[in-house]
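Milestone M4 deliverable, item 7.
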Amino acid sequence: MSIRIWHQSFTVLSDLGAYDQALRAHFRKVARPGTEIHMHGMQPGTYRSNYPGDDIKHSALQYLHGLQFMAAGLNAEEQGFDAYAISTLPEPALRDIRSLLDIPVVGYGESAMLTACMLGRKFGVLVFIDELAELVQENAARHGLAERLASVRHVGFRFADVLTAFSDPTALIERFRVAARALIADGAEVIIPGEAPLNVLLASHGINEVDGVPVLDSLGAWIKQAEAMVDLRRANGVRPCNRGYFSARPERQRVKEIFTFYGLSERFLTPEQQLGVTA
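Output delivered:
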């Protein structure tokens, strides 16, 4: 039986041709036969450039952009998707989205951290944006994994460097290894290559370890967790928690009314143009 997963990126995918194509190829490689990953990005014009990092290093701006993630999740459920998968390390509004939806909601960072815990005692995370180190540490604590986090370090290059490296990644991969060895010196036994663009670049070129320490394919972990959650739902009907302040689901019509009240319904509650299907 097929599985339909709504992939939600923090980038405007139509602005990022090489990354978009690399994602599609990686999804085809990792997802099992019958799994369809429908790729979605942020609304065109969300950012001043093709680099979201100038916004998402600020908590308040990331919170506001998280409204698109909420709306996309509502669209995913109403369009009959089997799972909603947030494909970005910061995981904007993850807890809130889970309280809105009945279908499985999978977070990129959480999936990576949980998988890393099965591969080594401690994991380390590499990021493009220095300010995200605090958020990654807070998310690890929220996921109950603070003691398993060795450290968070800047990878030593930026988002734009990764985009240009898809044609020739040799130099960038060596710089990545330098940063990975710093994490290993901090005690990391698993390397999580933070943001998805770096992840897909490394995975596409077979980089899966540094000095005997595994380099996790976070996108692969994210896909497999989404598939597993759908399988569990179908096998025995398991569903997300629906009680308590953080998990009880509000009435759907009231959610839509509130989006409308704040002037967001026209922009966010209509289906975004589908960018394609992979895997």
